[in-house]
Structures are given as C-alpha cells and as structure tokens.
Amino acid sequence: MADKYTPRLRSKYEAEIAKAMTEKFGYKNVMEVPKIDKITLNMGVGEASQDKKKVQTAAAEMEAIAGQKPVITKARKSIAQFKLREGMPIGCKVTLRRERMYEFLDRLVTIAMPRIRDFRGLNPKSFDGRGNYAMGLKEQIIFPEISYDKIDKVRGMDIIVTTTAKTDDEARELLRLFGFPFPAPEAAAEEKQAA
After folding, report:
1. Is 143 helix (H, G, I), strand (E, B) or coil?
2. β-strands 157-163, 36-44: how paired?
3. Distance of CA 12 to the CA centre of its chain
4. What domain range includes position 46?
C-alpha cells in the first residue's frame, strides 16, 4: 500500500514550526503549541438579489479555489433598501480543515499572494485579540485555478485563519513561520512615520 500523502506545510509545521514556537514562547507541553485549526473562505454576492445565478457562479469559482463544495449562505432577515428577502441566497462560504487546509494555505502564500497587485505585505493589525487572523482579497483572479477569460465579474472574498493561539503575538509568529508576509516591526514603524 502506498504511503499516505502529507501536505508540505503540515510536514514543515511538525518538523520546524512547532520547535521554533516552543523555543520562543517556552511551552511546557506539546499540546500547548498553537496550530492552525481551520480556514474559512467567505464570498458575499451583493448582486444576487437581482440575479440568483450569480451565487451559483461564485460558488463554482470558490469550489475551484478551495477544492471543496461551498455552502450557499442565505439572508437572515429581510432588508427593503437592499431588495432583500429572508432566505434569499446572498453568498457562499467554505470551511477547510486538515489536509485541504494546508494545501490551500500553501497555494495562498506561495502562488496567490505574490500575484496581488501593489502588495506590500499583510496588515499585522488584522488579528481579533484571540489569535485569529482575517484578511480580505479584492479579486479572485490571483488564484491560478480561476481563468480571467471565464469569469463574469471580479469578486473579492474574506479569508479567516482560526488558530489555537491564546494571544495575537503567538498567532502572528505562527503565521509568520508558515510564510505569511507580515512587514517587520521596524519597517511598519518607518512606513507610519513617512505617511
């Protein structure tokens, strides 16, 4: 029987990242070391109130990006100004765990992020205070799975990385070791002074 496939970033976490985190934060127990729990992708489709097919198109694009079928999200309550009724499809989301999560993370960091226009690193302030990181993408075409010629509209999405870290500093270090391009603290301070 063939060996079970292990994603590159999972092997990297087990071999290097867990050790580096333990050295920096002095964890006593292996189970204390923070890890990435899940990654949630969410795409809101504003024009879905006029055309229901838009949600299906967005869901197909998200399935290509994530490698997993998304769940269609529906409106919780009616809002007359937006011509929205309760129960109408308004977007889609997908939650990635285990192997698929590591594979998506690898593609995001190594392929997609370098293709973002005018990219100067991720905002280090986008943590929620409990070790989770949220980022927004303006266009889905940065992913190689999406062909520019076949899309009907450039759509953005939210990516939420949920970690088991207790503090933002631990989560920031964990994601930095995974290859998230956060600017160095000195560079961020210099950029703020220049502005």
Report:
1. coil
2. antiparallel
3. 19
4. 8-181
Assigned domain for 188 exists: no
HSE-CB of 62 using CA atoms within 13 angstroms:
29
In-domain check, residue 100: yes
Bridge partners, 74 (sequence order) = 89
How far is the C-alpha of 135 from the C-alpha of 119, rounded, in Å?
Answer: 13
Give the single-character DSSP code of 189.
Answer: H
156 alpha-carbon distance from chain centroid: 12
Q: Is residue 1 part of a domain?
A: no
Q: Specify the pLDDT at position 1.
A: 44
| 74: helix, strand or coil | strand
What is the predicted pLDDT for the residue at 82? 63
Query: Rounded CA gap, 12 and 113, in Å?
Result: 19
The CATH number assigned to the domain holding 150 equals: 3.30.1440.10
Q: Is residue 35 part of a domain?
A: yes
- φ/ψ region of 124 (left if φ > 0, alpha if ψ in -120 to 50, else beta) reads alpha
Percent helix / strand / coil, the chain, rounded to 5: 45, 20, 35
Sites in the chain below the pLDDT cut of 50: 1, 188
Q: H-type helices in the chain, by residue range?
A: 8-12, 18-25, 53-66, 98-107, 168-177, 185-194
The total number of structural domains in the chain stands at 1
Q: Which residues pair with 157 in a beta bridge?
A: 137
